Amino acid sequence: MSHIAGDQFRSARDNCDHHLNQLVVIMRTLIIDDEPSNIENLSMILRTYCPRVQLAGSASSVERAIQQIAAHQPELILLDIQLGKQTGFDLLRLLPVKDFEIIFITAYDSYGIDAIKFAAVDYLLKPIDIAELVLAINKVEEKTATKQTAQQLNFLLSQLKNVGAGPPKIALPQFHEIRYVSVNQIIRCEADNSYTRFYLDDDEKILVSRSLKEYAEILVPVGFVRTHQSHLVNKTFIKSWIKEDGGMLLLNNGIKIPVSKPNKVTVQAVLNQSW
C-alpha cells in the first residue's frame, strides 16, 4: 500500500466524508479477499477515511462469501479476483441476484482485467492506493441511483465466456443508460476535455465521462491507434496517409485526423503492418 502525506490523507478523508455524508443510509460493505493482510489494510483505510462506510463483514472464499452476502445484504463489495483456486467471477456466476455495487481488487496482469475494462466496471490495482480507493467509493455513491451495476456485471461475465469468439463489445456508460457497442462499429474517439466522444459507423455520436487515455489503454490492443493527444482511430477505417500539415490520416468517410509529431513513427509503423 502506498503512503500519502498527511495533508493528502486529510484531503482524501474530507473528500469521502463530503460525498458520503449525503447518504441517508450507511453503505453496508463486504471485503472478499483470500489474504488476511489485504482485508486488514482495506478495513483500516475504510474506517479511517470513509467512516460512513459500514464494514459488515469479510470472507476469504467463494463459499464463505455467498454466506456473508446472504446474511448482510451488502450495498458494496470490494472483491479480489483471485480467491484461492477460484475467482471473484466464479462467485458472481453463482449469485442469481447482483443488487450491490462492486469494486474489483486486482493485479495488473490478473485474469479478466481486460474484460473488466471493457465492461466499464470499477477496479483498483494492487497495491491499493488510498486516494484511489476513496475516489472509487465516491463513484459508487454517484452510481447508486442509476442501478446499472447488475447489467454491467452480467455483460462482464458474458465477455469472459466469449473471449476470442468475435470482436469484443465495450460498455459506454451514460447517466441514464449503458450502451454496448462492438469495437468494429467505432470509427474514432476524440477527447472533449475530460470526456471522450465516440463516433460510430452509423453516424451516431456517444459522449462518455471518461478520459481518452483510459480508452486508449483498452482499444489500442484491439486495433486502434493513438494519433494525437486528442484522437484515437480504428485502423480499419483509415483510407490513406496524406502529406499535409506534417502528416494526417484520411478516413473512409473523408474526415482528416491530425497526427502529432510524437506519434508519427508509431502511426506509420501501424499502417505499414496493416497494409
Which second-level CATH architecture of the largest domain applies?
A: 3-Layer(aba) Sandwich
How does the major sheet shape up? Answer: 5 strands, parallel
- The span between the termini is 46 Å
- Could you tell me the strand content as a percent range? 25-35%
What's the overall average pLDDT, rounded? 84
Number of domains: 2
CATH level-1 class of the largest domain: Alpha Beta
CATH homologous superfamily identity of the largest domain: Response regulator
* SS content category: alpha/beta
Proportion in helices: 25-40%
Computed CA radius of gyration, to the nearest angstrom: 21 Å
Helix tally? 9
Q: In a few lines, what is going on in this structure?
A:
This protein has 275 residues and is an alpha/beta fold. Helix content is 36%, strand content 29%.
Describe the structure.
The structure is a single chain. With 275 residues, this protein is an alpha/beta fold. It folds into two domains: 6-159, Rossmann fold; 183-274, LytTr DNA-binding domain (OB fold (Dihydrolipoamide Acetyltransferase, E2P), Beta Barrel), CATH 2.40.50. It is 36% helix and 29% strand. The chain is built from nine helices and 17 strands. It has helices at residues 6-20, 36-49, 62-72, 88-93, 113-118, 130-144, 149-161, 212-219, 264-274; strands spanning 27-32, 53-59, 76-80, 82-83, 86-87, 101-106, 123-125, 169-173, 178-182, 186-192, 195-200, 205-208, 224-228, 231-234, 238-242, 248-251, 256-258. The chain has a five-stranded parallel sheet with strand order 2-1-3-6-7, sandwiched between helices. Strand 16 (248-251) and strand 17 form a beta hairpin. The protein starts with 5 loop residues before the first helix and ends with a helix. Mean pLDDT is 84; it is low at 1-5 and 19-25.
